[in-house]
Write a structure and sequence with these properties.
Layout (H helix, E strand, L loop, with lengths): L2 H13 L4 H15 L11 H23 L21 H6 L6 H15 L7 H10 L9 H12 L2 E2 L7 E2 L1 H10 L4 H4 L1
Antiparallel strand pairs: 1-2
Helix pairs in contact: 5-6, 5-7
Length: 187
Amino acid sequence: MEELDVMRIIDENLSKIQDTDVKNRILHWAWQKFSTEPIPDEIESKEEVKEERRRKKSTKKKSRQLKTKAKRPSIVGDLDLSKKGSKLSLKEFYAQYAPKSNLERNLIFCYYLQNIKKQSPITVDHVYTCYRDISKLKIPVALSQSLIDTAGLKGWLDTGSLEDISVTVHGINYIEHDMQKAESETT
């Protein structure tokens, strides 16, 4: 009898058995009877397997919690967003546009900081300070991720380092030529 014939017979017969415990006992018996190798480490009991899964799940959850407890942005105290030293205050600059999303707001703030205020470097804290400066504006819950999304989804920012954010050429073109202007600007 050939090896494949034996395997086929075993497969046909084991496939007919529905009870997995019975299958496992048969395989265990066959291993002990016919193998020249020792039995591999005994299969852990179901409770041990369940406990291991719970432990891994708990570890993953703790890992996620640690990642979400990232540094909260703070206001940059010496960042002057008034008209002093520039043509426009942030409020005046922001009022020129009608942003529809946080991605567009992120671009407006970074463009203002980079091109009007000549701020370098631009960090998450600088952008947070801009959000706080505009009244009635909701700050994204995950501001760092929002900035990363602005870079990844639109290509308007370079967030290779969140400690040195910059506006890309694509972002400059969008804000200077394509972004929707506020009503008073278009009439």
